[in-house]
Write a structure and sequence with these properties.
The complex is a heterodimer of chains A (113) and B (114). With 113 residues, chain A is mostly beta strands. Chain A has no helices and eleven strands. Chain A starts with a strand and ends with a strand. In chain B, strand 7 and strand 8 form a beta hairpin. Classes of the chains: A mainly beta (113), B mainly beta (114).
Chain lengths: 113, 114
């Protein structure tokens, strides 16, 4: 019940295209859903996050879509750029308490120029 | 501003040797601190977290231990390393308040056990 399942494992998108990464969770107590971006040899950095009281959040070219009834959320990267090439992790947790994030397995995104 | 430091950045150790990875946080007080491990091609697995000095919670049974001797210091240790301990270890902190929900990660320590 603590798992977060992420797909696909790897994704290749042409420059200017839309990158879509999907995640599904099981624990209905989760109320915080962040996406992290990680470049090789670096620690992950928060990209964008959403709470379950909204169905969509947009920050620049990055959008999270959230479907509470299906227990799914996704990251859309519009007008994908070579600089977006990185590994992306979805995660979930409860805001209260010790903030123990449960991470998906990661998606290695490559944007071809 | 808050910063987090991890060291060493890279470590190659023989099987059976001890391990000590250190993490310190600056610019905040009483943070929640975390150790995650990232195996090659896999997600991040929470190993330990701490909500205060001397308070350690272990998430998975393993060959590692953690300690928090000071408010902003978190140490990951092992008495005898196993091959399976190889991986990328990440320390993180959570500040609460207006930053509630966001974990800030360090640059990581890459451990190779031979």
């Amino acid at each position: 019940q603590q798992q977060v399942k992420q797909s696909p494992q790897s994704l290749i998108v042409q420059k200017g295209g839309i990158s879509i990464i999907n995640c599904a969770y099981e624990n209905t107590a989760f109320d915080y859903f962040p996406w992290y971006q990680q470049f090789p040899g670096k620690g992950p950095a928060l990209l964008i996050a959403i709470r379950p009281d909204v169905s969509e959040k947009k920050e620049g070219r990055f959008t999270i879509s959230f479907n509470k009834s299906a227990k799914q959320f996704s990251l859309h990267i519009m007008d994908s750029q070579p600089g977006d090439s990185a590994t992306y992790f979805c995660a979930a947790s409860r805001r209260e308490g010790a903030q123990k994030l449960v991470f998906g397995q990661g998606t290695r995104l490559t944007i071809n120029p | 501003s808050q910063t987090i430091h991890q060291w060493p950045a890279t470590l190659v150790q023989p099987v059976g040797s001890p391990l000590s990875l250190e993490c310190t946080v600056e610019g905040t007080s009483n943070p929640n601190l975390y150790w995650y491990r990232q195996a090659a091609g896999r997600g991040l697995q929470l190993l330990f977290y701490s909500v205060g000095i001397g308070q350690i919670s272990s998430e998975v049974p393993q060959n590692l231990s953690a300690s928090r001797p000071q408010d902003r210091q978190f140490i990951l240790s092992s008495k005898k390393l196993l091959l399976s301990d190889s991986g990328f270890y990440l320390c993180a902190w959570h500040g609460g308040g207006s930053l509630a929900g966001e974990l800030f990660f360090g640059e990581g320590s890459r451990l190779t056990v031979l």
